[in-house]
Amino acid sequence: MNNTLSKKVKAIAANIRSRREEMNYTQEYLAAKLNISQNAYSKIELGYTKITVERLFQIAEILGAELTELIMADNAEAA
Fold first, then answer.
1. CATH code for the domain defined by 2-75
2. Residue ranges of the HTH cro/C1-type domain (predicted)?
3. What confidence tens digit (pLDDT) does each residue in 24-73 have?
4. Where are the domains of the chain?
5. pTM for this model (two decimals)
């Protein structure tokens, strides 16, 4: 069960990164918009940091994405 959850978290992180790259945004840009350090943002994309639903909504808004796009495991390259 824990392994499945870990894969889902990694899939969401991969979706966020993929969408950020599609928008040609840097990690620094997203970090600044979220008012966090680039290092803290990097940990989100790597799946090391547990993010809140509120933070997920903020990321989706910045990326101009629907929340469902980011949480769909099927969309992730690394799923």
1. 1.10.260.40
2. 16-70
3. 999 999 999 999 999 999 999 999 998 999 999 999 999 999 999 999 87
4. 2-75
5. 0.87
